[in-house]
Amino acid sequence: MTEKEKKNNSGGVSRREFLKDAGLLVGGTAIGSSVLLAACGDGETVTEMVTKTITEQGGTSTKTVTVTGEPGATATVTSPPITVTAQTEAGEIAEAIIKLDINGNETSVMVRPNWTLQNVLNDKLGLTGAKEWCDTGACGSCTVIMDGRPVLSCMMLAIECTGKKIETVEGIAHANHPLIETYKNNNCMQCGYCTPGFVVTAKALLDKNPNPSREEIIDALSGNLCRCSTYPQHVPAVQEAAQKLGGS
Amino acid sequence: MKRFLHVDATTVEEASEALAKGGAMAIAGGTDALGTLKDNILPDYTEVVVNLKTIEGLSYIKEEGGMLKIGALTLLDEIAHSDVVSSKYTALAQAASRTASVHLREMGTIGGNICQMNRCWYFRNPDNKFNCLRKGGGMCYAMMGDNRFHSIFGAVKACIAVNPSDTAPALVALNATIVTNKREIAADDFWDVATPGSTVLDEDEIVTEIQIPEPAGKSAFIKFAIRKTIDFPVVNCAAMVGGGEARICLNAVYNLPVRATAAEEAMAGATIDEANAEAAGEAAVTGASGFPANGSNPGNKYKVQIARTLVKRTILACA
Amino acid sequence: MPASDYTYWLGKEKEDLKWIGKRGLHRLDADDKATGKAIFGRDVKLPGMLYARIMMSPYARAKIKSMDTSEAEKLPGVRAVLRYDDPIIPKRIFNPWDPDIGFTAGQATPYAKPMYILGPEAFFEGAPLGVAIAADDLDIVDEAMELVKVEWEVLPFNIDYEKALDPGTPIVYDYMTEWDPNWLFGFRYAISSSYADEEFTLEPGWSGAENASNMVNKSTGYLPGTDLEAGFAEADKTIEFTFKRTESKAVSPEILSTIAQWTDNGMLEIFQHSQDGIKKMFDVYALMMDMPKNRFLHHNGYAGGSFGGQTLYLNCFHCQLPIAAFLAKKTGAPVKVLYKRQDNQFGEMDEGKHHAKVGFKNDGTITAVQTEGLFAQCGDLRLITDTFGVGHLLSCTKIPNLEGTGTTVNVNKHAFGAHRCEQQIPAHYKQEVYSHVAAECGVDEGTIAKVNDGKGGHGLEYLSEYRHNNNIPDVNGLDLVLEAAKDAVNFDEKFHTPGERKLPNGKYHGMCLAPHHEFSNGANPPAPDPRSLKKMMLSCNYGQVHITGLKGDVGVDMRTGICRAIADELGMNFEDVIYSHLDESTESRPETWLSGGGASLTFSGHVWTSVALARLLKIKILAFAAIALEANAEDLDIVDSNVVFKDDPSNATPFGSISSLHQITATIPDVVMDWGKLDIPSAPSPAGLVAGLYMCRSCNILEVEVDPETGGVEIVNAVAVNDVGLAVGPETCEGQAYGGAIMGYSTGSIEEQIYDPGTGVRLNPNFIDYKILTLADIPNIEGIIVESRMGTGPYGSCGIGEDNTTFCSSMVTAAIHNAIGKWVDTYPPTPERVLKALGKA
Q: Which of C8, C107, C356, C461 has its CA 20 to 30 A from that of C235?
């Protein structure tokens, strides 16, 4: 370790100072799950939850590994999809590599704790469908589906999405979801900036409720703003998609 | 959003320890916490964000021992759509279903909703342009400024911000108890005018559960806001009337949820009808005044009329 | 008279148009926008790109006395710091009246203030100034910005326009006394140019009181021949009323950002969304940056909303482009300058206080209108084309006596940005006049509109004769739209006098009807002059026709409209007409106002250019095909992308199989030289017809329910009827109708930018506190298109886009009045204002 890195990992540095330098810290090499599995021993007898700290040249990485199963049983080791690349001595994370399941593809990306999911999707991963409009959780343009729920990616820290299953408009379009066609049929877009947010929110609705009423559609889409006011066309577009999906 | 460190707490104890170190902010749904961080509203920026979502076992809705128990991490959407909450603890289900927008209810938790900071637009102005009383500063800017959405029942500690929660009045009307890692607090006593928070909780104290006794009568919640969704309340009201009891609570009219005790006395054991409800509405706003118009500030006396109406209508909805 | 008598003007009969007016065609941008593939300026990321922000003034008015950026410069990851006093920034302050820039007075006018890069003076809270910092990522930029130490000289300010000229109110833009008096002239020009046939008196602002320079101007306009005294004497009744509007915002979805990089050959490559790729925008930048005008390469992506705001004026004022360019120069890397949400809350052109005096006869015939307005000029720019309350009465009625006075004063409020559109005030006056007179007479506004129908003091007979003389179909446009709108909501059955209909739910029902004229922007046929045509080229390519044209996307989907027109003109199938965008430098680009203000969805001057090019291309194709097919060109035609023999259409040769056709192009110079072969009609002269042609009409109807116990207003039902002459893209036209109407109702019912009176700081620069209507709040609404073919665009089409927003924003209080019998005199009609009107607050 360089002197600087040693300093950063000593307890004598304030968190603020630590944060300022975190961007420069050469974090521990990303450790693949195979290394961890070996270290923790998949198939061992479960005794308790184990935490392993693995130090490698170039820095320190800590990884918490969850071992499930009743004590005495054969262990199943789940490697949590996060590799910490910079942290304080107290274990407060400044930078990490997280794994996300985006549209069925496992993706690893380096994040800082203050980066929102929208920021990571758009700027780091090039998935520009989740749009930044209000940036305060009040417009729905950045909606993604996470574990089945329509959520606002601008109000969600990427680091807290570790291991989550995320669906974006790109995935919905790639899967040829009928909403894409029905949105086009119903002329649901003008400037088009908010349109992906509507499509994703509508997809989450249809996943949960294949045959929504007009009121249910309005309720589900009422958190999505559209400045051009394409609003009236979204209801028939969702209804048409529901029909195509086999609802009545 | 400026940088901070991050901790995933796996137990309440771990979270509490992390918060006890200072400079930390707890995050659950994040819909309030991230807003404060993005706009950089506090004089001292948060150093560590402590994630509570990684704590197992704090998301549930169950009836047990004659009461409803809701885990602090339960989503507002789950509460809004819960059959048991809707049928027996109606005011809470209605309040949850009128909170924020459909997306935010899929993210926000009941614990977060009752702990959220106030929405005063001086307090919330980006980059702490108004270092007000609630941030350790010397004055309330809203008092002399634009207070159209502020308190109509005067100030607490010279601050006229209002408690913006929709679920808070429902919990007060339903006589809930808030359970933390340290104690049990009656909903009546849960909120406070702290710096910068809005509850009596210690820095390292974490809400773990909400307990609500089975109500004696029907309950209801009514919100008046500018829009049908997204918005915080201009005024909201929850009431439980029946079985000889009445608990009525207004919110967004004062720094704390306001028990309308005069209205409660009027309604306890009384028939729920238009005349009684109207009288109770009138009683509820006795002592409310609001601020007069001043230049571009229209003042907020109009909120008295809305509060009066909401008390009446909420009582009628308990029939 | 049937439309077929006007074939010269209309070009084609409607039944001969295959693609124009066809329903069910997807917009060409539909797939991009539905799937998230559409790339907006904000989405662009270049390899090695740095991020940058500009400091924003925390004060309503302040000067930087000194600034220490040394700590910021030292922060690791910071790549460049651009200070206001950096030598890279030319010292020259941009003066739009500078002869070097060659602006027409109309182009220069909106620059109300001198422009400079990074200050060092701020005239409103949130103004960009002082310093811009580029770094590896935004975290570092934001941290570096906090390390900048500024010593401010905080100056007195004023945000209350009503007090602007009171004794003791500070002068808010002190250079108004020092700078080029042309800035005053600019306002004179704007006003006089919008009513060329009116007469004006103008009063310069700076004379008299010590703070008189807070007044930008005071001016009066009137219809020639106006005699107010006689007009009011003739009236059976005279009423006076006052209304106020507060400031609203465009709140464009996409937050302004600019990416700049320098190419190897010294070009400045820019990615910035702009609703129109205006050459003049780059002329301004060239001047501000002291560089040649021909070094700009502009990539104009999709624009996430703009509504008139993302134009020359707004983009230039914020100086994002020169700042990005200088940072890119300093770092040798591409730089993206980003705003935050609160930096992007542009808007306002409607704050002010207005008074009207109206004389009318018992049957609703209006004999005289006199108006007086006081307007707040916010931010640093203003598109002030109409300070007169009588402007729209002038273009919609025969009222013989009209006079309006407008005073504009400076205030220290946040940045300008058009908000669909600058005509909101005259439109609002017109609506208030109609609604007040209708209420007084116990009739609906449609009746008042009919009684007074006309233009520039002329009645219907004059209009009829005018249309006849100019080959425009002679249709009563008002009747068309009134009937359609009333039928749609069952108006006559629902209509009631004010305060008379309480609903079973305890609320009061209210209605407002707003008839108005069309919006046309550049729809008149062009002259055979390259300067009046748009830059565009058509070329044949293996059976397809490619259009190379500028990109300007404001959501009105002009691309599809142009492709429909070219397909119909050429006899091509729609899918064989391809629109390619032209990303290019300003060099040789003609003045272009692509789809400015969203005015002409269906057609603008751009589409006349398309029609001319298509007609020329067809002549060339048939000439070459004649050689290939050994036939006479006159005997050939193109049908469904095949070259056919007119006498035997089954003898068809696929367009793509004639190899000699691949060489053919049609360009602007060709068109000008062969103008006589193209059957382009000449524009009807508006001489003798005040305030433009505007033959087509529109009509909006709004129904509200007012809760008398809370002051809550629910917008429940609406219809937006527009006569678009001929709908090129019917669904898109309908979208502009209901979309514009909803946006107007949003502005008119809940939108208000609120300031702290003590500091001038904005209190709601976010989407929680600045509210726009959601799907749950909008009325049941229908957009209905009527086609009279009275427009001056090709085939008798006219524009649509701005009008519904402009008109509908002023309908809400009239509907509330119809509900409760009381006028709410201030927009937006908040619960507080409604309860006050009811005496309950």
A: C461
